[in-house]
Design brief:
two-stranded antiparallel ribbon, 39 helices, elongated
Length: about 1050
């Protein structure tokens, strides 16, 4: 790939070198011939040849040297020199552009389109448009982001965060991207380790440059606008725009999109097949359980999931046959980085192309320095030093087939440099950005054919290149590199175009990035992401500011070039088998090389459409995906057939995250839907029983309860099996849901014990709900002997008596008889109930049921424990106790005044419970008439007034609802009024205890209350309606 610096320079010497201001062009230096006007074509040509060209070559050479020095030895000193060199070059560019505009703007170039193109390139300054302050800041921002990227390390130990690597991670566990992290991603099948390094790399890089990238965008847009572009995206695309052929920016965007749509079906077939094979390899990864899901990004063998070649081991069509990956053979044959580069050079020479000059071998960095203390930019790149002699490659080469092909790719750049080195400086670049990237890859398509690899001795002698299974493996291997890359190559700049245009805001950088990844690549994040992350920055080209659409374009062009060269060489077979260097083609390889060389020599001096026309011998002048699809036709046919056999449907859902947390959220959503149905059925059955106590309703309720318990138990076991590690669920709300669902409550019991508990509870509730006391004290609770009209229920009869009677004997009778009618009859049941409740609580991990009941008050995330709650409850009671004691003493005295010593024997002792106007002495409001501090004054108890005004239960509920709506709260829905039981029916037994119910269907909510027209019940109505609200 071309260095970032070079592309900047080629936007008219954008980045460059130290140059004294005395060397800068001055107008008077142009008048080579005395008296000749400057505004002529001839003067412009002489200026370029005699003044601009030698100065520009000198400036760029020095600047490239400064940049090279920094890239192969990252130090603060070298960084300062590099920035200073760029600033001097920017000044050179500015003065050059100013001079060219002032001196040659009136020239009529209509007779010489090439000179007009040259003029246009010189007056566009790019970043050099910025004033010195802004330019320096841009350099500093970019350098800072690149330094973060180039020096990043992560720790193999998953417990050590990327921020703590230098301080806490042992040296032998510190990992660089190359080769350490890339090797793990390529070879490990440990999903947990893959997820760790994937996330850590993003924490160590992109997350640390979010703010810098925002400033970078602002400054780049400012510079681009000064060149007349709408934004930097438009400036980047200008390499494809050609006014001379009326090829517009929108035409390029439309053509790129049309090509992607043409290629998408092939990618979708490959994606579907890989997803299936990954599911087989990682059966416990929940994100792969859905046949329509995107693929977790960390499983695809590459940090950015842009190529999938490292998955061949377990995905190739014929695993019993040899793989085309010749890495092992290279290692066995003692290949070195030098061997790989020499082999590549030989291949170029067989096509009659220019060999690498001696300076290339002397000055290139083709291996990571042995001195580990020297930090380098390992990202492979090719460099043109613009003196027509010095060309280099920087690559931390590993002995792998992948790097062998990368060597050819980078050497393709150098070949391009060598071919156009004598052109004017602004023309020393590809016809468009994609051309430069396509050259080496075009030749690599021949190199990676089985026939060529066999000719190199990298495939066994008995390797049958005509074996259809081996050929399918070979083509599949190429597809994992070429087809897998296409959406990534396309989306990288689509994403940045939207950033530069302002469509994507800074706070959306990461969320929109993942929207693009899932939309085009069909991949998802294996961990939770947020907009505090900046995952794009984990890819070199983002902090380095290198446009990426060139790679998508190059992947189209390389197949066009390959087909054209194969045809020129006289090859007539299937395109995927073509090796233009094959001996059987005779001098066809050299003819193909000459065709390529003719195109490369043009540089960017002619429109790129003419360059395509040149290499295709006039058969095409546009990008064409046809040759790529032709190359992969056998593979597309096989994938389509195989996926159909497997029952696989290509495509994916658009969920950008597939983390454990996201999977749990999806599971929880499904659980909510299922649980609502089960819970609703249980609530309706319970409601039916409580509002009409019959044996049939009792049995229906118990059955619904058993079904709900079995469901809860099954779903909790399912949840714990699918998500055994709650620490991976970091969202507070989801974590709370997980913790709540992990506790089964009564459903933790065996089905038999649960059924028994339900029966006991129902028996006790039924005893309580139907209990009556006879008004005849001689009969007591023997209801068979008590006349119907003398049978007193708790509400309203007994409650009214306890509230209003001042006869201590009567009060004692009803107080005692109620306990005989209820509690005494359920004592044995309650003992069994306690045992079963404790058994369920222990099964849920609690000490006993009391601890389980207190669990809602415990907050682990805030370190609030059960002991804290108990301590707080005691503290609060002790705070309120003095007030209660004063009230208690006062009430005791007033009762003594009313009843005397016989009933209230002591002014210092406890109060007899039956005297306090409430069955459980929990409220004493019934004593108001003789205990109020100021007798004769109006009472706050408005019960009598309510009864006088004819209030009803419905009116009490309406008034309560009006109170809620006056506060802007939600009124009771129509279904509430239909289902609620707000008065005690006269025709059946019911559970009168007031309660509000949610029926879990989002529609039905109800209150069950045997309402009496009293102030106390009015307040209870508000209380219950609060639950419904």
């Amino acid at each position: 790939m071309v260095s970032n610096f070079v592309w900047g320079v080629l936007l008219v010497l954008l980045f460059s070198t130290v140059c004294s201001r005395s060397a800068l062009v001055r107008p008077r230096e142009v008048d080579v011939r005395a008296g000749e006007p400057r505004n002529t074509v001839q003067a412009f040509q002489r200026y370029i040849r005699l003044v601009y060209q030698p100065q520009a070559e000198d400036v760029i050479y020095n600047d490239q040297e400064a940049s090279w020095a920094y890239n192969i030895n990252i130090t603060g000193y070298n960084e300062e020199l590099m920035i200073a060199a760029s600033e001097e070059t920017a000044l050179f560019d500015q003065e050059t552009a100013q001079y060219v505009r002032s001196s040659f703007s009136n020239i009529d170039f209509s007779s010489n389109m090439t000179l007009e193109r040259l003029y246009d390139k010189l007056v566009l300054l790019g970043d050099a448009n910025l004033n010195s302050t802004d330019f320096s800041e841009l350099q500093e921002v970019q350098t800072r982001m690149q330094r973060i990227y180039n020096t990043a390390k992560i720790c193999r130990n998953p417990s050590i965060h990327a921020d703590d690597v230098l301080s806490k991670c042992p040296k032998d566990q510190q990992l660089s991207l190359e080769p350490d992290v890339s090797q793990i991603l390529a070879t490990s099948r440990n999903e947990t380790l893959l997820r760790h390094v994937w996330k850590s790399w993003r924490d160590a890089t992109g997350k640390k440059m979010h703010g810098d990238y925002q400033r970078y965008v602002e400054l780049k847009n400012k510079a681009s606008s000064m060149d007349g572009y709408a934004d930097t995206g438009a400036a980047w695309r200008s390499t494809y725009v050609d006014t001379y052929t009326n090829y517009t920016d929108q035409m390029f965007l439309d053509e790129a999109e049309a090509i992607w749509q043409q290629l998408k079906p092939l990618y979708e077939q490959l994606h579907a097949y890989i997803r299936h094979k990954l599911k087989e390899q990682y059966p416990t990864v929940k994100a792969l359980s859905n046949t329509n899901s995107p693929i977790p990004a960390h499983l695809l063998g590459n940090m950015w999931a842009q190529t999938w070649g490292n998955l061949q081991e377990f995905t190739r069509p014929h695993p019993e046959k040899q793989s085309l990956d010749v890495t092992e053979a290279m290692v066995e044959q003692n290949y070195t980085a030098d061997t790989m580069f020499r082999k590549s050079d030989d291949f170029f020479a067989t096509l009659g192309l220019i060999r690498m000059p001696q300076k290339f071998w002397d000055k290139s960095m083709i291996e990571r320095p042995a001195d580990n203390s020297t930090k380098v930019v390992c990202h492979a790149s090719a460099w043109d030093f613009y003196n027509r002699q010095d060309f280099r490659i920087k690559q931390c080469t590993e002995v792998t087939m992948e790097d062998f092909l990368t060597v050819h790719h980078e050497m393709g750049h150098v070949e391009y440099y060598l071919q156009y080195k004598d052109l004017e400086v602004p023309f020393r670049r590809g016809a468009n950005d994609g051309f430069h990237e396509a050259v080496g890859d075009t030749l690599a398509l021949s190199v990676q054919t089985p026939a060529h690899l066999k000719s190199l001795g990298l495939l066994m002698a008995d390797f049958d290149i005509n074996d259809p299974d081996l050929e399918r493996n070979s083509l599949y291997s190429t597809a994992l590199d070429k087809i897998a890359f296409l959406p990534f190559g396309y989306l990288m700049d689509k994403y940045r175009y939207d950033i530069f245009s302002g469509k994507i805001k800074p706070e959306q950088y990461n969320s929109k990035w993942w929207e693009h990844l899932v939309e085009y690549q069909g991949i998802c994040s294996p961990v939770k992401r947020s907009d505090s992350d900046f995952d794009p920055g984990s890819k070199y080209h983002i902090p380095a500011g290198v446009p990426y659409m060139r790679y998508f374009v190059s992947f189209i062009l390389q197949f066009q070039f390959h087909k054209a060269m194969c045809q020129e060489a006289g090859y007539t077979g299937p395109l995927h088998r073509c090796d233009v260097s094959a001996p059987e083609l005779g001098d066809g390889g050299k003819r193909a090389g000459a065709l390529l060389a003719k195109t490369l020599k043009m540089g960017s001096s002619q429109p790129w459409t003419q360059a395509i026309s040149a290499i295709t011998n006039g058969n095409s002048s546009r990008m064409d995906a046809g040759p790529l699809l032709e190359f992969f036709t056998p593979m597309q046919q096989w994938l389509t057939q195989k996926n159909a056999e497997l029952g696989i449907t290509p495509g994916w859902s658009k969920e950008p995250e597939c983390s454990e947390e996201t999977a749990f959220q999806a599971w929880l959503n499904l659980h909510n839907n299922e649980s609502s149905v089960v819970k609703s059925a249980e609530m309706f059955a319970t409601w039916a029983y409580q509002t009409n106590i019959t044996k049939a309703n009792e049995l229906a309720m118990l059955e619904a309860s058993n079904v709900a318990a079995a469901f809860a138990k099954r779903k909790t076991e399912e949840m714990l099996g699918l998500f055994p590690n709650p620490d991976e669920i970091t969202d507070p709300l989801l974590r709370r849901a997980y913790e709540k669902l992990s506790k089964l409550g009564d459903a933790a019991l065996s089905p038999e014990d649960f059924a028994r508990l339900g029966a006991i509870r129902t028996e006790m509730e039924q005893v309580y709900s139907v209990a009556k006391v006879c008004n005849d004290t001689s009969i007591g609770i023997d209801m068979e002997r008590c006349p119907q009209h003398q049978q007193m229920a708790l509400s309203p009869e007994i409650t009214d008596i306890l509230h209003s009677s001042r006869d201590p004997e009567e009060l004692l009778y009803y107080w005692s008889a109620w306990r005989d009618a209820t509690g005494k009859k359920m004592r044995s049941n309650f003992t069994e109930y306690v045992g079963l409740k404790n058994k369920a609580a222990v099964a849920d991990g609690y000490k006993d049921n009391a601890e389980a009941w207190r669990a809602p008050y415990v907050e682990p995330s805030y370190n609030y424990t059960d002991a804290d709650f108990l301590e707080d409850a005691d503290r609060l009671w002790n705070q309120m106790k003095p007030l209660y004691q004063q009230l208690h003493a006062y009430i005791r005295y007033k009762l003594w005044e009313l009843y005397g010593n016989k009933t209230v024997p002591s002014l210092n002792g406890p109060i007899p419970a039956h005297l306090l106007s409430n069955q459980w002495a929990q409220t004493w409001v019934g004593l108001l008439d003789f205990t109020e501090p100021f007798p004769g004054k109006p009472q706050l108890d408005v019960t009598q007034e309510m009864q006088k005004q004819g209030w009803t239960a419905r009116r009490m509920f309406n008034v309560s609802e009006e109170f809620f709506t006056d506060l802007g709260l939600i009124g009771m829905p129509e279904e509430f009024w239909k289902i609620s039981m707000i008065e005690k029916p006269s025709d059946r037994e019911v559970v009168c205890h007031a309660s509000a119910e949610d029926f879990y269907d989002g529609i039905h909510f109800g209150i069950k209350q045997c309402t009496a027209v009293t102030m106390s019940d009015l307040l209870t109505v508000h209380h219950e309606m609060g639950h419904v609200e």
